[in-house]
Predict the structure.
Amino acid sequence: MDRLPKWADVALVPLISLLLAALVAALVLLAIGQSPVNAFNVMVDGALGSAYGWGYTLYYATSFMFTGLAVTVAFHAGLFNIGGEGQAQLGGLGVALVCLALPWPHWTLALLAATIGAAGFGAAWAAIPAYLQAKRGSHIVITTIMFNYIASAFIVYMLVDVLRPAGQMDPASARFPEGAKLPSLNEMPVLKEFFLRLNADGTPKLSKAGEAMYTGVPANVTLFIALLACVAVWALLWHTRLGFQIRAFGKSEKASRYAGINPVRITMISMLISGGLAGMMAINNVMGESERLLQNSAEGAGFIGIAVALMGRNHPIGVFLAALLFGFLYQGGAALGMNTTIPLEMRIVLQGLVILFTGALDQMVRMLLGRAFALTGMRAA
């Protein structure tokens, strides 16, 4: 197969894949009697046209960054971690136990403790499949999938029989203390003017409807932790000895063994980091948005993280951009379901098409581009 220039492989292939996904989605909309242009406008307006829309887009993107990074770290070690959903749920349990343990005097202290709790519980849940893979040869895909179901059942037990307050019917923990409440982005002085102007059409005065939306922005300071996590994963994988060992092991286990790399050690460390990142997702939704532990706290973000990592080419920068795209699809799809007669399930169709063309059919696009570059005389850099 003809090789592509690096810039084309990094930027042009994903762009063409997205355009193909959009084209097929447009054909699906036309087939059900809907206008693709109108649907796109509704999605853009719902996801990016107000502080409310931006808040939810960034909120979803924050969760997807964590789970996408979790898949990325494991992937570079040659491991396919499908257990992000369960690890995120156990991370939520860690957040809840930490936040309910003390009457926290300030959110910064609670955030630090909750981050440790979330990462610790997520890493602990990933450690068991990692050990089974490293020591017993159990396939990581099978064990992590099964551990998702175990985590779900365990969370139900904890919420119903352990954490549910007396007299409460809802299977959920008690609300976290006021000192554990994370500030949303619109409450931060640095970003307040942005949300004010965005939601008030260029004027600092908010309408009553705008004020209701403005105060309901769910994106919170966890976004900055997710961005720091992207930088940390990039530094780890490409600028540390451990990162080199992880990538070498993922490329060739036999060669890495010959070079003196311990496969058990790398498998365990990679999965612990991966599980910890997936668990940290719970800071965003358990501590930042719902302010208590709910039954389905992960909200499917563990599985979306797989698509985010695939589309982002398992690179932190790509994961960041892909997380923003899926955040847009999530919030834009919700607006599509609420403001049009297009069914909400169309959001799932859009996500599936993006995954199909950027993942399963990615090689087809690369092959066609390679031939096109060869015919035009361009060569790989």
